[in-house]
Amino acid sequence: MSTTPSPIAAEQKTAEDFLPLLGTDYIEFYVGNAKQAAHYYKTAFGFQSVAYAGPETGVMDRASYVVRQEKITLVLTSSLHPEGEIAQHVNKHGDGVKILALKVNDATDAWKQTTQRGGRSYLEPKVLKDDQGEVILSGIHTYGETIHIFVERNNYKGAFMPGYRVWKSDYNPAPTGLLHVDHCVGNVGWNQMNPWVKFYEDVMGFKNILSFDDNDISTEYSALMSKVMSNGNGYVKFPINEPAEGKKKSQVEEYLDFYHGEGVQHIAVATKDIVKTVTELKSRGIEFLKVPGTYYDTILDRVGKIDEDLAPLRELGILIDRDDEGYLLQLFSKPVQDRPTLFYEIIQRKGAKSFGKGNFKALFEALEREQELRGNL
Ligand code: FE2
């Protein structure tokens, strides 16, 4: 018996997985003004125009813009009327993530497997067809008002899915080197982390691969707890945070107060060259959290030798951490809307599979400075 996992073992593992996922298919946001949000993601992050749905395509209640960069597909959707799910979502939560869509080979089976294990149905399997083929969708509820849609698109050749038309634009800012979704983090309420961990274990077959308690994630003032959930092949990772007691208000609590419920806190997107990507994003107006310059005075003692020059990392405020398998470089944006809710993480992994535990303290102190400016600490 060999102890080295073979490709066959990996395949068998997927075969035993009752919910085999091929990765993140798309992330859909409900926003106040999808036309302007799409412009922001193109201009600031370098996403490309892909598809559009709205009255011109026979969709009378909403407008949706699909933008893409490498394997990351975002859908920005606005309601055209004051009533209905989209308008109510935006009214309550502000701009935020509604759908974390997951790519599957069989959306009907994904729905059956998850609903028979206790998942609450959002969408029964539904076939959408046009002259480019067919897409099958199904969906279940997760934390807050967030939804997982299962997308089966093996028999579809079109730009996005039926109901959308190709969106060709004369305005095409260059990409910024964003490659794929690394992980998406959910913030849940007090004592709700473990119930949602159990949901991902029982309903979706995920495993808890890492846990952080309030001793790992606390500063002098505030604290949170987090458990990282991963699907069988590791393509989809959902860390779940809950607030913890501290002298002052947890950043997760601030999120819950302003999102008015549980929801997606941050989306981490991978790059192969974080210095280049962050330089580009900054030049386009994306604002990042800043750690004190002293962070860099001792960083190499903590993380050891790295391939990159330290000077540009210090200049851009990029954080570094190491685990048993390698190191990672990461940086967190400020919230991308007026409410202190959703933000982005830019991450470059150089072997490390962890989440930057060594940076938590410096990072959360930087977050607290922002919370204090908002009067929410
Ligand atoms: Fe993260």
Protein traits:
single chain, 377 residues, alpha+beta, 2,3-Dihydroxybiphenyl 1,2-Dioxygenase, domain 1, 8-stranded mixed beta sheet, 17 strands, globular, disordered N terminus, binds fe (ii) ion
Walk me through the topology.
Layout: H1 7-16, E1 23-30, H2 34-45, E2 48-53, E3 62-69, E4 72-79, H3 85-93, E5 96-103, H4 107-116, E6 121-130, E7 133-141, E8 147-152, E9 165-166, E10 178-187, H5 193-202, E11 207-212, E12 223-230, E13 237-244, H6 251-259, E14 263-271, H7 274-283, H8 299-303, H9 310-316, E15 319-323, E16 326-332, E17 343-350, H10 360-373
The chain binds fe (ii) ion (FE2).
Fe (ii) ion binds near residues 183, 185, 266, 345 and 355.
**CATH fold-level assignment of the largest domain:** 2,3-Dihydroxybiphenyl 1,2-Dioxygenase, domain 1
Kindly, what is the distance between the CA atoms of the first and last residues, rounded to a whole number of angstroms?
55 Å
CATH superfamily of the largest domain: 2,3-Dihydroxybiphenyl 1,2-Dioxygenase, domain 1
Order of helices and strands: HEHEEEHEHEEEEEHEEEHEHHHEEEH
Instruction: Indicate the proportion of strand residues.
Output: 25-35%
Strand order of the largest sheet: 6-7-8-5-1-4-3-2-9
The general outline is globular
Domain module count: 2
The structure class reads alpha+beta
Low-confidence stretches are 1-11
Q: Helix count?
A: 10
Main sheet, how many strands, which sense, barrel?
9 strands, mixed
CATH architecture of the largest domain: Roll
Bound molecules: fe (ii) ion
Q: How many DSSP E strands?
A: 17
Quick check: average pLDDT?
93
Rg of Cα set? 21 Å
CATH class of the largest domain: Alpha Beta
Helix content: 25-40%
